[in-house]
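Data card: per-record layout.
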Amino acid sequence: MVSTGAGVAREATRAAIFAPLAAVGRAEVVAQRLADAIQLGLLEQGERLPTEQELGRRFGVATVTAREALESLRSDHLIETRRGRSGGSFVTGSGDDARAALLARLTGTSRVELRDMGLHYSLIASGAAERAATFATPGGVDTLELLVEDGATASGVAARRAENGIRLEVAALSRSARLVSEQVRLQSEFGPLLWIALQDGDVVRGNAARHRRLVEAIGDGAESRARAVVQEQVGWLVDRLLAIREAADR
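The structure for this 250-residue chain is written out next.
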C-alpha cells in the first residue's frame, strides 16, 4: 500500500512534469521535459502518455508542437506508439542512464547560469517557506513532515519524488497560487539538475536534516528562520552541483 506521503509526492511530480511552459513552446522544450522525466524514472516503463491534444493543453502549446515532441522521443527510442483502441504513446526508455544524460546537460550549462538558476530557485522556494510559516495548519505541517521522513529513507525514483513533493507542499502551504505555479515550473526546469547533487549518501542525509529544520521552523511559525533554512539549503546544493560540474570537466 502506498503511504500518504508517497502519494502526495507522486502527484506533485506529475504536476511538475506536465506544468505549462513559461515561454512560447517549442517541440525541443517539450521533448526535453518528457525525456528528463523518463530518464529519471519519474515516467515509468510501460506508462501511457497523454494524447497529443492533452499534452498540448497541459503544456500550453499547439497540438502540432506536441506531435513533433513525441516524434523526437520516438526517434530516441524513449517511447513507442501503438495503434488501435488500446493504443497511444508508451514509455519504453528507462532511468538507467539518467545520471549520464543529466551530467551532459550540467556540463553544457555555464557556472554563471547555474548560479543564476540557483538564485531564482532559492528566492521562490524561500519565499514560499516564509509564507508557509505564516499560514500552515497543523495538518499541513504533519503532511510535510511525512514527506520529509519518506524522502530521508528513500532512494532512486522514490527519493526524487519525495524531494518534489516537499518543495511543492511548502509552496501549497504558502496559499499563493502564483508561488505554486512558479515552484512547479522550477521543479521541472532546475529540479532535475539539483537531483544530480542528491546521489551521495552524505548529501542526502544533510539535505534531510535541513528539511527537518524547515518543518520545525514552519511548525513554529518562524517566518525568517524558514526563509533562511531554504536559502542556506539551496546554496549548499548548488555548491555541490558546481563541484560535480568541475569534476566532470576535469
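Known properties of this structure: The longest helix spans residues 223-249. The chain has two domains: 4-95, 99-249.

See the next section for split statistics.
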